[in-house]
Amino acid sequence: INNKDFLTAPIIDQIISSEKVAHVQIGNNAEHALLVLTKTGYSAIPVLDNQYHLKGLLGIGMITDSILGMERIEYERLEDIKVDEIMDTNLPTIRVKDRFQRAVDLLINHPFLCVTEEDGTFAGIITRRVIMKEFKKYIYN
Amino acid sequence: INNKDFLTAPIIDQIISSEKVAHVQIGNNAEHALLVLTKTGYSAIPVLDNQYHLKGLLGIGMITDSILGMERIEYERLEDIKVDEIMDTNLPTIRVKDRFQRAVDLLINHPFLCVTEEDGTFAGIITRRVIMKEFKKYIYN
Ligand SMILES: Nc1ncnc2c1ncn2[C@@H]1O[C@@H]2COP(=O)(O)O[C@H]3[C@@H](O)[C@H](n4cnc5c(N)ncnc54)O[C@@H]3COP(=O)(O)O[C@H]2[C@H]1O
Ligand SMILES: Nc1ncnc2c1ncn2[C@@H]1O[C@@H]2COP(=O)(O)O[C@H]3[C@@H](O)[C@H](n4cnc5c(N)ncnc54)O[C@@H]3COP(=O)(O)O[C@H]2[C@H]1O
Predict the structure, then answer these.
(1) At residue A1, does pLDDT exceed 90?
(2) CA distance A102 to A4
(3) pLDDT digits (tens, 9 = 90+) for B46-100
(4) Which of B21, B45, B106, B112 to mutate to test the pocket of ligand 2 (most atoms within 8 A of CB)?
(5) How many of the other CB atoms lie within 10 Å of CB of B30?
(6) For B9-127, where are the alpha helices, taking DSSP H only?
(7) Is the shortest distance between the CB of A96 and ligand 1 below 6 Å?
(8) The pLDDT of residue B141
(9) Would you say the CB of residue A39 lies under 6 angstroms from ligand 1?
(10) Chain A interface includes B6 (CB < 8 A)
């Protein structure tokens, strides 16, 4: 395949589907989110609502940053902070029927992208690792 | 350039040099490390000794995981835990004079690689972002 074939390939086979993606829900508190992130071992995960719509991105750094006080890290405040208040709502997304080109462009600055259906339903994620594997196969030919 | 040129290119121009790399030192405690990670915004950084030799990798997840007690997250223990006890010492490394091929192979499973001189001195890091930018230039031709 040539460069153009690589860029125009659909992303659909590379999507990690939603049931395999760790996430937290709107309304969860930051302490719960910290437990989920620590136990799954991921540094950032999607935030969904109860309709499985994508609402934002929550990273461990956002949690610790929210309790960095003047004198100490204020751990006791974690149970009073909702993920809604600290998540990143400015996250780039990609559609299920988009092509590698859009994934390549966005994954330069983002470790993973949330994939959504036309109606905003969360469909899964596409990660740098998956694109790099495809790129490696491509470049080794 | 062709595939072979891409893979045999030296990594040297893509290294983020050591003075630009946030790190912690052997002997630092986990609370200090958590502050460095939170303030720099990175999820994992190298651990060096006072001779600027690479000793390991420390991620935020390793810190929170170390204080996950049976009943609660035991934040008070952070100042008593040394980074030496919780860091990852199994990290892959790459030499200053290595080629893109080795970087591509290893960055599939690691967000960044520590670059060392022959004598183990820390020279900098090479990141997925940098390799993906080179790959994008390559594939857009
Ligand atoms: N349990 C595990 N098993 C094997 N390797 C692991 C792993 N956890 C992390 N890694 C490796 O570390 C990289 C960075 O993970 P991080 O959690 O910072 O960053 C992750 C995380 O924020 C998110 N992510 C990946 N898979 C996820 C999942 N199943 N659920 C939720 N978020 C996920 O996408 C980012 C990029 O993932 P990517 O695979 O490119 O890159 C991953 C992968 O190469
Ligand atoms: N201050 C910032 N400005 C702009 N973009 C930012 C940023 N902090 C993070 N990012 C973006 O988020 C990605 C993941 O960052 P993370 O800290 O999890 O994972 C980072 C971090 O663990 C480490 N890293 C990168 N630059 C570093 C530095 N100057 N010092 C120490 N560690 C660094 O290498 C990993 C992969 O970095 P990469 O650049 O491929 O990928 C970065 C970059 O695309």
Answers:
(1) no
(2) 13
(3) 999 999 999 999 999 999 999 999 888 999 999 999 999 999 999 999 999 999 9
(4) B112
(5) 24
(6) 30-40, 60-66, 83-86, 100-107
(7) no
(8) 83
(9) no
(10) yes
